Amino acid sequence: MSLTQEAAARAAASIPLDEIDVADPALFQNNTMMAYFARLRKEDPVHYCAKSLHGPYWSVTRFADIMSVDTNHQVFSSESRFGGITIMDNNAAATLPMFIAMDPPKHDEQRKTVSPIVAPENLAKLEGLIRERTQAALDSLPVNEPFNWVEKVSINLTTQMLATLFGFPWEDRAKLTRWSDVATAEIGTFGIDSEEARMKEIHECAAYMMKLWNERVNSEPGPDLLSMLAHSDNTRNMSPEEFLGNMLLLIVGGNDTTRNSMSGGLLALNENPDEYRKLCANPSLIGSMVSEIIRWQTPLAHMRRTALQDTELGGKKIKKGEKVVMWYVSGNRDSDAIENADSFIIDRARPRHHLSFGFGIHRCVGNRLAELQLRILWEEVLKRWPNPMQIEVIGEPKRVFSSFVKGFEAIPVRINA
Amino acid sequence: MAKITFIDFSGNEKTIEAENGTSLMQAAVDNIIPGIDGDCGGACACATCHVHVEASWLNRLPPKSDTERSMLDLAEGSDENSRLACQITVSDELDGLVLHTPEAQH
Ligand code: HEM
Ligand code: FES
Fold first, then answer.
1. How many separate domains does chain A show?
2. At what angle do helices A174-184 and A156-166 cross, to 10 degrees?
3. CA dist., res. A174 & res. B96, Å (int)
4. pTM to 2 decimal places
5. Can you give the residue range of the structural domain that contains A295?
6. What CATH number is attached to the domain comprising A282?
7. What value of ipTM does the predicted structure carry?
8. Between chains, do B74 and A352 touch, taking CB under 8 Å as contact?
């Protein structure tokens, strides 16, 4: 354990329970949140925090309790008008109408329209293109000199993927990444210092997307997502706000989640050299490793719900209107549900049994797409650099200041060739 | 004990012997039946154990819960023959059951 981790463990053990605020983004930025979650799982698994940056909230920290909240959408609502799906209530972008933040029946209708395009059958058609683009990106990496893996691999590849899915103008694709960052940023990060500043850029996104939408509406149906939305009965008549909301949902949903899995996977392999060796000796483990990376990273640390009625969970009385935060990042380390939950093990028996994609009616519709992108990345990486620790993390990773998007701004690496 | 036949997307058939008390999803996963993932481990929370039941068997199965109904409604290609395999427990009465698995689940 490093010095910071030891100090964090001491602080987490000594702080009075009712003062614990696991949503403090600083804990995520310096990667010290796990000790607090471990204590809550043990001593107060459904925990009330009365005062935080984002007001009072309940924390649900055990795998089984998270599963029961996630599958009970009749009581635990995702609706944006009650606050939506993140702990931040006043993020103006997050209160836009998107189906991730709707309850049935509206949610179901819109999800059914988007779902087929990210179904595995459809993805099979995209695999060749994703692979080609991954190969090109890897072939252009510098060797034997330091670079930022997050920028040159993770951001680069996920941006390309989004542009491909949307049929987005290639030369402008960096905008997609920017809009995604802007939509979820804590105020004070990513150059966003107010909700007004956030919405200014979001409206630029709206205008741009609206232009593409109009082009699609006026042409024959094509294979990209925008075209599918523009031509489907369920979504053709969306209001401009709804359109913008669903666009942002797909941009954010498919962007920094996959990006941070690409980054987190490399870090996990470096921190667990035995697993890196296991992988190099047996590349057929890539499939199960990908799921383990997604569990280990938990790219979205939480999802939030709002109680529609008084209810009880883990012996606690939750009142109507209260904010309930499911900490996937904690449930994914719950040893009652996952064997050796605190170890990164690339050949687990049931690797998909993790919470990172959520469960229930909102379960990630892009899960197999994310897995596909990651599988291709690691297949192509191992073809080029087949030896353990050949891609070496050479400095401290810089983490994002957020308790929602769990990820990295930079990971300095060197490819030893 | 029941003999269960799975027919996959490309028409390949495989018959397995399933223990009473286990779920059809678990029996399929244990026998590496293609097209069944079972991500949530049987909690009726992921719909990656979606199967199409041979029509003659439909009303010999226990009824669907509301949760199964809502998960199935969102599953790709679901129809009136659809069930979630994790919600059906194997018993002697299911001997001879025939299930069709989809191309893929997500
Ligand atoms: C490793 C990568 C990913 C992770 C960890 C992830 C995580 C999640 C989670 C936790 C939810 C559930 C939200 C809730 O219960 O409130 C979700 C929903 C969603 N995700 Fe992903 N996601 C990933 C990749 C993707 C990709 C690549 C797409 C692109 C298509 C995508 C699109 C969506 C959409 C549209 C929803 C809303 C589903 C609904 O509300 O019915 N995600 N994702
Ligand atoms: S295994 Fe998840 S719903 Fe059946």
1. 1
2. 100
3. 56
4. 0.95
5. 3-415
6. 1.10.630.10
7. 0.94
8. no
